[in-house]
Amino acid sequence: MSRSRSTIRLALLLAVLSSSVKATTLFGAPPCPDPYGVHAYAHPEDCNSFFLCTNGTLTLEHCENGLLFDGHGAVHNHCNYYWAVNCGHRKHDLTPLSSPGCEFQFGLYPDSDTCSTTYIKCVHGQPLQEHCDAGLAYDPKTHTCVWPDQLLPYCNPEAIVGFKCPHKVPARSAAAKFWPFPRFPVPGDCGRLITCVEGHPRLLTCGDGKLFDSVSLSCLEPEELPHCANSL
Questions:
Q1: Phi, psi angles (nearest 5°) of residue 173
Q2: Are 225 and 171 within one domain?
Q3: Which of 12, 112, 156, 200 sits at 20 to 30 Å (Cα–Cα) from 55?
Q4: Could you write out the three-class secondary structure of 15-76?
Q5: Does residue 12 sit within a domain?
Q6: b or e along 100-114 (b: 16 or more beta carbons within 10 Å of the residue's beta carbon)?
Q7: Residue 43's domain spans which residues?
Q8: pLDDT per residue over 43-88, tens digit each?
Q9: Where would I find the Chitin-binding type-2 domain in this sequence (predicted)?
């Protein structure tokens, strides 16, 4: 009886080992590099799929509709938007699974047929309205928010920024020091400034924790502008 149980256990162990070897061979994936951590690998033939090692356990995963795997994506479950992925020789299926407001279950889309500072982000087939940073407009070609003057004549930078650049500035003014990219303050806002690029306004921030001085038109440390203490 003992020998019979030992034989059964050995047979089960061999079956498990054989299954593991067959799975790895079938997947065409390298073994997990270590028993801990999470590692994702491209499938050699299918851009819609990838291999995932989770604490030493190898699984075959599939990207959601509208997403593909490139090893750099972080949109959802290690996958990226299909238009941002170069599949190379790997096959891929881009059949859309549409729902109201979403062509694919995951994707970025214009919010309207006109220049807009908002766009639609689809997550699991649900359309969510997202806002560009202040002063930017959505570019449907690059799927990003850009300066509105980069979308001429589709966009009107003056309408987006709310400022019209002058054709010239007084020779001895602070703005003249920065010509041909003159600067202007945003009334009541120490955190941002307007600069003109080829006659079109762009809304900027100083960055590095600095604030904009409306007198010198320079970016200064906050302690130099006590009246702007609440702008950070």
A1: -80, 165
A2: yes
A3: 12
A4: HHHHHHHHHHHHHCCCCCCCCCCEEEEECCCECCEEEEEECCEEEEEECCCCEECCCCCCCE
A5: no
A6: eebebbbbbbebeee
A7: 38-84
A8: 999 999 999 999 989 999 999 999 999 999 889 999 999 999 999 9
A9: 29-89, 99-157, 162-230
